Amino acid sequence: MTKRRPQTQARLLDAALEAFAANGFGGTRIEDVCERAGYTRGAFYSNFSTKEELFFALFDRHAARVLERFEKQAAALGDSRVTVEAIAAALAEFDDDERTWYLVTTEFTLSAIRDPAAARRLAEHDARLRAEAVRLLGERLEHAGLRPRPGIDLESLVRMLIAIREGALAQSYVEPEALPPGTLERRFLPALLGAVTQAG
């Protein structure tokens, strides 16, 4: 059973992602997840205590994948001097799974805003992901020979970049043909990064 546990958790997570995307976090029951995964409620509760815990496991899995993608992009840029355009291009890349995750996390965020305890937990997970994003952005700016201008801290800049990505994605998913994902980021992020950084 111990050897099968990771496989069971992975199937439950995959089923939850599908169910949350199709029916919403609030509209999905634990039974729905179990049915999609082909497991009993007992199997669910031997791995997760609540539906919320299941969401945060999904959050951490997605965060790990995003960071892995950014790490690969950074490695592809190499140690040579990079540009704000190259950094912006990396931030404007999205994989095919991003829409599904956007549906899931946006709805959960709305429910967390109404629930202070859930909001605190979400903020903790966001903070861990953001800390890694701050590290990666700082490294890329350093390779570009740049640093934030006085009064601009990297964490606040990362928060703004996340806000831009999420807001731009919302528009892209409503009008995918007129505004494919990444369009606004590629157009405006170089100017933004150039405005808030300086040589150094």
Explain the overall architecture.
The protein has 200 residues and is mainly alpha-helical. It has 2 domains: 1-49, Homeodomain-like (Arc Repressor Mutant, subunit A); 51-199, Tetracycline Repressor, domain 2 (Orthogonal Bundle), CATH 1.10.357.10. The protein contains 9 helices and 2 strands; from the N terminus they run H-H-H-H-H-H-H-E-H-H-E. It has helices at residues 5-23, 30-37, 41-45, 51-77, 84-91, 98-113, 116-143, 154-174, 183-196; strands spanning 146-148, 197-199. Strands 1-2 form a two-stranded antiparallel sheet. It is elongated. The mean pLDDT is 92.
Brief summary of the model shown:
It is built from nine helices and two strands. It is mainly α and 200 residues long.
